[in-house]
Amino acid sequence: MAYDASTDASDEELLARYAKGDRSAALVLTRRITPRILGYAARILAGDRAEAEDVAQDTMLRLWRMAPDWRPGEAKVTTWAYRVATNLCIDRQRSRRRRGQVALDEAPDIADTSPVAEDRLQHDRRMAELAAALADLPDRQRQAVVLRHLEGLSNPEIAEVMGVGVEAVENLTARGKRALAALLAEWRDALGYEG
Amino acid sequence: MREQDLDEFLAGVAAQPPAASPALIDRVLADALAVQDQQAKARVVRPIRQSGPKAGFFARFAAACGGPPLLVGVCSAALAGLAIGYLDPTTAAVLTGTPDDIGAEMSGLVPTLDFLTTEG
């Protein structure tokens, strides 16, 4: 059975079909989940596109390997993937710190769908500023803010991804947003916001 | 920056989902199909576990002892040991082929070991 990317089948159903040898399911899952993990990793890793791609590929590889052992109903596939990606990002951040490298100089090189060049320029500038501001946040606050406000996860899902309680997620998100607002205020004029 | 502005800003960024490059999609898909092939081969090689009723205590005990044939051998040896221990020696002599009422003519043909213990 062939699927297009807009199939109504859930990620869990597709993963079960993949485990039974359905090659079309692999394609749909790849197109659905990879961009989300890539975007998340790029934001967590301060816009390092190459490392974010490695994290996305590694996360998906782990998903394929554990597909036969997936137990339906225990977790959402995307939540599991975000959790794996979070751990991989943490490993890479630690590795960077050990090497004394801080990759804050690159804006996220994530393609957008804006048809107009000016919009694209504005989007790229926002992404660069957001990446810089996010990079200044403590790791846990950054993860919480990105998962909540950019990836659209619910607080219980974030709690599962981060391995903390829902209350802790609320605290991290609130503190992260306050810090982010303070950092972005420096670029408020450039972003075109008032007040 | 006000909270409302930050929310708008974040919503604007979130509304433009990132696009993975075709090269990344190709790599991920190649991984998926390679892993799928490996798992299919593993399924063929791996013996299918029978999901029948659970074996009883004696069956598991026999299996732990090395299977029914070995258990039969062990039981036979045990019974033979008990028999040898309890049976009358006369009966045992019959079994070993040396009856008490052996004739004088026959006793001369049976070698003895007395010469080994006699001095002179």
Description:
- The complex is a heterodimer of chains A (195) and B (120).
- Chain A is mostly helical.
- Chain A has 9 helices and no strands.
- Chain B is an all-alpha fold and 120 residues long.
- Chain B is rod-shaped and about 125 Å long.
Offer a concise description of the structure.
Chain A is an all-alpha fold and 195 residues long. Chain A is 70% helix and 0% strand.
Helix fraction of chain B, binned, reads 55-70%
Strand percentage of chain A, roughly?
under 5%
Q: Which value, in Å, is the CA radius of gyration of chain A?
A: 18 Å
Which parts of chain B are unreliable, with pLDDT below 50 for 5 consecutive residues or more?
A: none
Q: What fraction, in percent, of the residue positions of chain A are helical? A: 55-70%
Kindly state the number of beta strands of chain B.
0
Arithmetic mean pLDDT of chain A: 83
Structural class of the secondary structure composition of chain A?
mainly alpha
For the termini of chain B, the CA-CA separation is 127 Å
Radius of gyration of chain B: 42 Å
- Identify the biggest protein-protein contact and residues per side: A-B, 48 and 31 residues
What would you call the quaternary organization? heterodimer
Span between N and C termini of chain A? 55 Å
Query: How does the overall form of chain B come out from the CA principal axes?
Result: rod-shaped
- Count of helical segments of chain B? 7
In DSSP terms, counting alpha (H) and pi (I) runs of 4 or more, how many helices of chain A? Answer: 9
